[in-house]
Design brief:
- The protein contains 9 helices and 10 strands.
- It has about 425 residues and is an alpha+beta fold.
- The chain has 3 domains: about 180 residues, no CATH class; about 140 residues, Methane Monooxygenase Hydroxylase, Chain G, domain 1; about 70 residues, no CATH class.
- Strand 7 and strand 8 form a beta hairpin.
């Protein structure tokens, strides 16, 4: 049977499969390096996978963003995320002070150093069988006791225990000590992977805090400018062009801030949600006298996430305020235009009334003029008739005819005007 598959089917299926580490056995050491990788540097990652050291083997994978392989001293896993890549090196039996293998460890770290990207988190994880073995290694970790985080993770029986202070040492690595506590290798692998994912996503979420803090002063400036605009919009002595220019400048500044910080703020919110989910999955149980993993995460991460959320809310509020200012300015301009149109209509109406009065004056004068000419013509006629008919009194007849002539001329002019203007008269 041949099926026409959707081009994204394989990618969707790959996303649904869990990206698990291989089973972990105690004792062992795990080194994980989380890097931010630009899209253009992905090719360098694939090139590094294609040029493995001698004796290393890259395993087949049905997920294009999840790679694993074997080394001379252990194994490695490379997980590619949207903006970061996590490289995990697993070395069974290599415990500092117990079973060191400096050459194997150096070879793996040298290969890891060649990977592209900027390190955002690097951790050395030491896994031992129980708490008694952990007690021998803990003093050498030189953890800060006031900041030491220790708790149990997993079911009530057979839970592992972790120790860390989340500090970066001189070698630029953090330290995490894990006592397996009887967990099976598969369960131990999942638990340690979840702990690392919690820390990785926490650091990725915290990337938004410097961005939000850096743009806070710019938002302060925009808010101050908005406060000045609030008073200037009501002032008639400030031109609309000047106000429009200022409103547009603040809107553009807000747009620039949103464009610069939008992705990072959204990513911070998404990563923080994942951190909460991982924390719930781990079900960390506190130990008396130590700071719990949940307490440490909530106290450090939540303020940063809330600061980023406040930054986003402030951006939106200032954007809405700028929109209201623009709407208010448009209303002011429209009102001013309406007032100008009203004054223009009044002027046109006065001009039309003046023209009407002038027309009526001209009309009256034209009636007088026409009547004068008609009466003059009739006078010539009557004077001629008086010479033929001596008994006809021309002046008297002209005096009687003159009112009739004036009325006839007036009526004729109005009749012509009605015919020309129709119902508009």
């Amino acid at each position: 049977m041949t099926m026409r598959e959707h081009p994204l089917r394989q990618q969707v299926v790959q996303e649904m499969h869990l990206r698990r580490w291989p089973p972990l056995h105690a004792p062992s050491q795990v080194v994980q390096i989380l890097r931010l990788v630009d899209p253009g540097a992905r090719a360098a990652e694939h090139a590094a996978l294609a040029c493995l050291p001698a004796g290393w083997v890259l395993e087949d994978s049905d997920n294009s963003r999840h790679h694993s392989g074997k080394t001379g001293a252990g194994s490695f896993v490379l997980e590619q995320h949207s903006e970061a890549s996590a490289l995990t090196l697993i070395m069974p039996g290599i415990i500092p002070g117990i079973a060191p293998d400096a050459a194997a460890l150096a070879e793996m770290l040298d290969w890891a150093e060649a990977m592209p990207g900027e390190v955002i988190r690097a951790t050395r994880i030491t896994i031992v069988a129980d708490e008694a073995a952990a007690a021998l290694i803990l003093p050498g970790m030189e953890c800060s006791e006031p900041e030491l985080v220790s708790c149990r993770i997993g079911p009530q029986t057979g839970a592992l225990r972790i120790w860390t202070d989340f500090r970066v040492r001189e070698d630029r690595f953090g330290r995490l000590l894990v006592a397996a506590g009887g967990m099976t290798p598969a369960d131990l692998s999942r638990a340690v992977q979840r702990v690392q994912e919690l820390g990785n996503y926490r650091n990725l979420a915290l990337l938004g805090l410097p961005t939000a803090q850096g743009c806070w002063t710019r938002l302060d400036a925009v808010e101050a400018a908005m406060g000045e605009l609030a008073g200037d919009v009501a002032r008639p002595d400030i031109t609309d062009d000047a106000l429009l220019e200022r409103v547009s400048a603040q809107s553009l500044e807000l747009m620039a801030i949103t464009t610069t910080t939008g992705y990072r703020m959204s990513a911070t919110a998404a990563y923080a949600q994942i951190v909460e989910e991982r924390l719930a999955e781990l079900a960390a149980r506190p130990i008396a006298g130590f700071l719990s993993l949940g307490d440490f995460t909530q106290r450090r991460l939540l303020p940063a996430v809330r600061t980023c959320a406040a930054h986003v809310r402030r951006e939106r509020e200032l954007g809405a305020r700028a929109d209201r200012f623009a709407a208010l300015l448009r209303t002011r301009i429209e009102t001013r235009i309406e007032n100008q149109n009203a004054r223009l209509l009044q002027s046109i109406e006065a001009s039309a009334a003046m023209q009407l009065r002038l027309q009526q004056l001209v009309e009256g004068l034209s009636v007088v003029a026409l009547s004068y000419y008609c009466v003059g013509l009739l006078g010539y006629m009557l004077k001629g008739a008086e010479d033929v008919f001596p008994r006809v009194p021309a002046p008297a007849m002209l005096g009687l005819i003159t009112p009739l002539v004036v009325f006839a001329v007036w009526r004729a002019v109005h009749h012509l005007k009605e015919r020309l203007l129709g119902g508009h008269n």
